[in-house]
Amino acid sequence: xxxxxxxxxxxxxxxxxxxxxxxxxxxxxxxxxxxxxxxxxxxxxxxxxxxxxxxxxxxxxxxxxxxxxxxxxxxxxxxxxxxxxxxxxxxxxxxxxxxxxxxxxxxxxxxxxxxxxxxxxxxxxxxxxxxxxxxxxxxxxxxxxxxxxxx
Length: 151
Fold this sequence. Notes:
3 helices; globular; alpha+beta; four-stranded antiparallel β-sheet
């Protein structure tokens, strides 16, 4: 009986070792590498703290830590949220709490899901970070890096 008990514990311990968690540190390092690739001179800009609301047309949620602001003329800005935003989903509309005509570092938002009963909050309160300009190629590379972590 003791050997059966020991075998069961050994098997369970082996199964527990196979559980993999996403490697968020490696993910951030990969995104850092993508964003440090040189931009064309006309695309280069430092990280910015605020973005005028007229500068972007839409916002795409990449995951619970990264959103992309898409602007006119193909301009893109990656925003790394201050913290992971629980419940943030890719296709839910976002509701921003703005203090003027700009969206800025530390401004907050939440995702909203609409249903027959009216709007429902689906995420916690999310806090923006700074905005990093990026190219379409960098955006595709970031998306690929995020998908590798999800697998």
